[in-house]
Every structure is written in C-alpha cells, then in structure tokens.
Amino acid sequence: MRRRASLVLVALAVFCAALGPLLRWYAFPRLAKIPPGQYQEMVLEAKPATLLDYGTLQAKEVEKVTIVQTLKGNVEESRKIERSAGRDVVVWDGLSYVQGPDGRMVSQIPERYIFDAHSQAPVHATGEAVDGDAVRREGIEFKWPFLTEKRDYEYFDAQTRTSAPIHYKGTRTFRGLDVYYFEQTIAWTKVPYPKKMPIPGVDATTLEKQTGTTRWYTTKRMFWVEPVTGAPVNGEEIHKEELRGGTLLGGRDKVTAFAGHVKMREDYLDHTVALVSSQRQLVLLMTSHLPWGLVALGCSLLALSLWLEARSRRPDDPAPAAGARTPEPAVSG
User: With contact defined as beta carbons under 8 Å apart, do 68 and 40 qualify?
Assistant: First the structure.
C-alpha cells in the first residue's frame, strides 16, 4: 500500500515540477495582455504656466493649463490587423487635449498607436499616425513591457515623431511601491503645428509657409514605472514650446507659446496607484507565486514519496535471530 502511494506521489511531484515552468514561460506570455477594448483617461496640470495669448501674440503667466489624455481601445481595428499580423494586437486611439484656465482649447493632437498586446512592441500597420501624419514608431509609448528591466528603452515622442532613449535612473519608492525611475530629455527641435489651434480662420497646415514662423519644442520627461506590470504610476514633464521668427511675431525673434511643469492630478495619482497595485498581484501570481509554489510542492511530494518508499522496504517486525530460543512462559505454582 505504501509503495502504491509513493508512486502516486512521484507522479504528482513530476506534474507540479513541470507545471511551474510551463505556467511561467508558456502560459504567462499568452495570458498577460492588454485588453483590446481598454479605456483610460488621465488629467495632468501645469500650475502655474506660461501660455501664449493668440489674440495679442503675447506670452503671459496663467493659473494653470490642463491636459486631458484619453486612450480608447479600437477592437474592430485590432481584429483586422491581427489577421495579417498573426498575433494579438491592440489599437489605441488617443487624444491629447490642452485647455487654458478659461476652459478653452489650446490644442488637440489625436494619435493611433498599434502595438503587441503582451510585449508592447510597436506593430506597423496602416493607420499608425500622429495628428493625421503617418508615422512608424520604434520603441515603446505610454507603457513599458511586463517585467520591465533595469535598462534604457527607446521611447517615442509624439511631438517630434521620432524615438530616442529614455534612461533608467534607479529604483525608488513611490507611495509604497518599488518603482523604476526613467528620464528622457528632448533637445530643442522644430516640430509641426497642431492641426487644430485656437486661431480663428488660420489653417495650421499652411501657417508656417505663409508667415515663416516656426514652432519649436523641448521637454524633460520623467516616469515612475512599476516594473512587474510595466505601468507608469506617475509621469511628469518640464515642457516648453516657442514660436520663432517670421512675420507672425511682428519682428520678434521668438515668443513662448507654452511653458510649465506638467504633473498628474492628485486624484488620478491615487486611482492609478490602486489599480496598478491590484494588477501587480495578478502578474506576480503567474510569474512568481504559482510557478515557485508548484516547484516547491513538487519537491515536497517527491521527498514524501521517497520516505514512503524507504519505509515500505523495511519489514514491519524484525525476524528472530537464527538459533535463538523462544523463552517459555513462566509457570506459577
């Protein structure tokens, strides 16, 4: 009976030992994915900020500038691209909407970001664009890969339509979470005008050609990334834009169009940290807790089966030694 039990335990031990790595290296890449229909909204603020009054073309300090970023999963488009790509694809239709302290629109830039649902690597397909301009992204945008590494990544900048390294700067603690801190600096670069601007009757696509006034931009981008999920729990930018030269500025060399330290609004920080903390446990379950737990269970079952096997090989009662006499019972008299 013990021997039969030990064989069953060996089979269970082998099963558990094999299931652990299988869960980590086979199931995890297929189960840990960004859902195609996900919707996200983020509100950021620069308080105070410098903003150009397009009526007077004078820069002035304002109480705050608000940036609302939305990312909406386009399920129909992702399914179309998946047929040719042969993998799970997510299509995010994004919008960055900037408004002044009076609530009026300063600019809005739509994006379509197409990427692999697990690795977050870009997938190049028709429709990949920023503000209506076709682009070919390299590197990541918005989100880091699951199990983010301590290294630099290529990060796509929507203003310049190019990718540049975003540098790993060390491990920090943010609101109780261990995070990786990344920085990227984009030097002054000439960039296109947003196609929708708060200038009545002005076509942004011909503004530079008609006036000779160009738009320039620089930023220092900072992210605090939870490494298990690859999700940023905080993001900030020290952002500056200028208009330079041409007839639009009335002889001035340049004027600040926008300048400010952009930060996530406090209520969105709280929501993001809570959401990422819960998702972190699910990813750890697949990558650490269950795989290592199953391997440990398999080792324990194997040890138990060997112990039972060893006991089954020992006789229950030792045989009497050869030539030994059995003592006769004493007779009371």
Answer: no
Rounded to 5°, angle at Cα 188 from 185 and 190:
125
CA distances, 177 to each of 42, 172, 239, 273 (Å): 20, 8, 27, 8
State the distance between the two ends of the chain, measured CA to CA, in whole angstroms.
Answer: 47
* Helix (H) / strand (E) containing 73: strand 65-73
Give the list of residues 6+ apart from residue 327 with CB closer than 8 angstroms, or none: none
C-alpha atoms less than 13 angstroms from C-alpha of 7 in its C-beta half-sphere: 4
Q: At what angle do helices 290-313 and 2-22 cross, to 10 degrees?
A: 160
What pTM does this model have?
Answer: 0.84
Residues 54, 60, 63, 69: is their CA dihedral positive or negative? positive
Residue 297 φ/ψ, nearest 5 degrees: -65, -40
pLDDT digits (tens, 9 = 90+) for 65-83: 999 999 999 999 999 999 8
- Which amino acid appears at position 67 of this protein? I
Per residue in 27-46, pLDDT tens?
Answer: 777 788 999 999 999 999 99
Alpha-carbon gap, residue 170 to 175, rounded angstroms: 16
Instruction: Identify which has the larger pLDDT, 120 or 305.
Output: 120
